[in-house]
Amino acid sequence: MKTPTAIIADDEEPMRQLLRARLHEAWPQLQIVAEAANGVEAIALTGLHQPDIVFLDIRMPGLSGIEAARMLFNRCHIVFVTAYDQYAIEAFEQGALDYLLKPAGGERLKTTCERLQARLGRSPDNIERQLTQLLAHTAQRKPQEFLKWIQAQVGTSLRMISTREVLFFRADEKYTRVQTLEGEVLIRKTLKELEDELDPKEFWRIHRSTLVRVDAIAEVKRDLRGRQMVRVRNSDEELEVSRGNTHLFQQM
C-alpha cells in the first residue's frame, strides 16, 4: 500500500514543527515530504512532490492559503489551518471544508486524520465553489479592529498593557517577551498571532523573532558584520533586521 504523503505550509517555522509532531502522533504512517513558508512555495512543492494532502495556513505572506488552495484543490486534499477566528470557522463549516485550529491537536486532529484516510482512495473533492465564496466573504469583511491591549499574568495579578507602551515583542521559546519602558513581561500569545492582530502601520516584523513598534525606533545602523541593527528609544536593546526585511529601511 502506498505511503500517504503531505506538505505543511505555514510562515511560522515553530507552527510547522508543532503540526508535524502532532501529525506523527495522530497518524504515524503519514510522511511529511516538504514544508513551505508561503503559498507560492506550497504550489511549487506540490508540483514537485505530488502529495496526497496539503495543510495550508490561511494567513501567509504573498499568497494566502485560500488563494493557494484554488490552484491546488484538484490535485490533492486540502486542510486549512488557522488561529481561532470565528468568522473563518463559520465559513469553513458552511462550506464543509476541512480545517484545524492552532495549535492543532486533540480530537479535532484525530477526526480530521480519520476523514483524510477515508478519502485517500478517491479523487479530491471539487471545492472550487466553496473557495470562491470564501474569498468573496473575506473581501467583504469589515475593517479589522486592531489589538489595543495586552494581557499579561504577573504573579497572581493580571496586568493590562496598552500597545502604545510596547517597544517591541520578541519570541522567547514557548513565550513572547513584551518589552516596555517599565520592564518586560512574558505572554503566551505567539508572534504570528500578534502580527495578525496588531496594526501593521504601527508594528513592523523586522525578524522572524521580533516585532518592533515603528515610533520606538531611534536609529538603524550596520554592525561590523554588515547586518542592519535597530536601536530602540530609551533602551540599550539592539534588534537585528533579517535580510528578508531590509526593504523596510531601503535608505540604509
Automatic annotation (TrEMBL):
Per the UniProt entry, what species is this protein from, by scientific name? Pseudoduganella aquatica
Q: Is the keyword Phosphoprotein assigned to this protein? A: yes
Report what the protein is called: Response regulator
In the record, what terms sit under GO molecular function?
A: DNA binding; phosphorelay response regulator activity
What sequence ranges are listed for the domain HTH LytTR-type?
150-252
Q: Which SMART domains has this protein been placed in?
A: LytTR, REC
Residues with 4-aspartylphosphate modification: 57
Query: What are the residue boundaries of the Response regulatory domain, all occurrences included?
Result: 5-117
User: PROSITE patterns, from UniProt?
Assistant: HTH_LYTTR, RESPONSE_REGULATORY
Q: Which residues form the signal peptide?
A: none
Q: Which UniProt keywords apply?
A: Phosphoprotein
| UniProt keyword Phosphoprotein present | yes
Task: Please name the InterPro entries in this protein's record.
Answer: CheY-like_superfamily, LytR-like, LytTR_DNA-bd_dom, Sig_transdc_resp-reg_receiver
